[in-house]
Structures are given as structure tokens and as C-alpha cells.
């Protein structure tokens, strides 16, 4: 059974991402093609990258890095839930991604973004970052607008159209994660 991590990419107090991640998990839990697990960055307090060796060497010194590496290595693919801050993803998500290299390789990921323009620019940045880490970004992106998919900019009210887009994105993440399995096994 494939394992897909739903990474909650914000640690900001009052974050909208928590309800978005739970919405993703609620829909994903109805599926039988993979198991889905929430990975909340609040549970992995990573200081600004503090490893002396580049992540590509895999020579992790710190216990927080080793725990993070073990968690990410346990998954076959990901859904990254990201806010858009200043036309990009959150600093905490970027930092968490930068800690590792091989643990990300040959896995698929989908993006659920949110912000004033649906987090589209954050999603585009994540696609570029993912490519450098040998992560395969699926085409479909759930882009939640603070103006139309939230009430009062704070309460998620995603409709059927967004749920259908999420289902398509999850289909792609599962299919691509399965297709990339031989590359993961060879590595």
C-alpha cells in the first residue's frame, strides 16, 4: 500500500493551513488506493538549516534532522499544503524541504495552496524546488482563494469544484507514486 504524507507547511499561529490539511485528509481517507498521514511541521521544529554537510551527502549529525529524514523516507509521495507568503511558499516549509535530499528523490507530489490568488505563486515555486530534489510534481493543483473558498478569510468553505480538483490531484499523486516505485527501489 502506498503511503502519502500530507505536509502542513505553516506553523503560523491561527494558520488557515490546519483546516486545509484536515480537509485534504478527510477526502483522502475515503480512498482505498493509499494511506494518508498528516505531517505537521509544528511537530518537527527544525532550526534554520544547521547541518554542516550538504543534504546530498546524507551525513546528518543532528537528531532533529535524523527524525525528519526518517519521517520523509517513510512515504512514497506527498501532498504539500502551502500558504502563499510574499509571492512564495512559507519559509518553514522551504527550510524543511532543504534539510534533506535523497529522502525526497523519485517521489510524486501534489500541491494544495491557499492565498489571495489561490497560492498560485507558492505552488510554482514548490514545483521548481521539487524538480531539483528529483520530486515529480503532478499537474493538478488545488488553489484555494481567500476570497472565494474561505468565509471571512479564515474559515474554509471549499465547494464541490475544489473537492473534485482535489480528487483528480490525489489520483495523479497515487498514479505517479506507483509509477516511480522502480526508481525508488533501485536507489
TrEMBL record:
Domain NADPH-dependent FMN reductase-like: 3-146
Top-rank taxon: Bacteria
InterPro entries xref list: Flavoprotein-like_sf (IPR029039), FMN_Rdtase-like_dom (IPR005025), NAD(P)H-dep_reductase (IPR050712)
Coiled coil: none
Pfam family, one: FMN_red
This protein's name: NAD(P)H-dependent oxidoreductase
Amino acid at each position: 500500500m502506498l503511503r502519502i504524507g500530507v505536509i502542513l507547511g505553516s506553523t503560523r499561529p491561527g494558520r488557515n493551513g490546519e483546516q486545509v490539511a484536515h480537509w485534504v485528509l478527510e477526502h483522502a481517507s475515503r480512498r482505498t488506493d493509499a494511506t494518508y498521514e498528516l505531517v505537521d511541521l509544528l511537530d518537527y521544529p527544525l532550526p534554520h538549516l544547521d547541518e554542516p554537510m550538504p543534504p546530498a551527502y546524507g551525513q546528518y549529525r543532528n537528531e532533529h534532522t535524523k527524525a525528519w529524514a526518517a519521517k520523509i523516507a517513510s512515504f512514497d509521495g506527498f501532498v504539500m499544503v502551502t500558504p502563499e507568503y510574499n509571492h512564495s511558499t512559507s519559509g518553514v516549509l522551504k527550510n524543511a524541504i532543504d534539510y534533506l535530499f535523497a529522502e525526497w528523490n523519485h517521489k510524486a507530489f501534489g500541491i494544495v495552496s491557499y492565498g489571495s490568488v489561490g497560492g498560485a505563486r507558492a505552488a510554482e515555486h514548490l514545483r521548481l524546488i521539487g524538480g531539483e530534489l528529483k520530486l515529480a510534481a503532478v499537474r493538478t493543483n488545488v488553489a484555494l482563494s481567500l476570497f472565494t473558498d474561505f468565509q471571512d478569510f479564515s474559515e474554509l468553505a471549499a465547494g464541490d469544484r475544489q473537492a473534485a480538483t482535489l480528487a483528480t490531484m490525489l489520483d495523479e499523486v497515487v498514479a505517479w507514486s506507483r509509477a516511480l516505485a522502480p526508481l525508488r527501489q533501485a536507489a
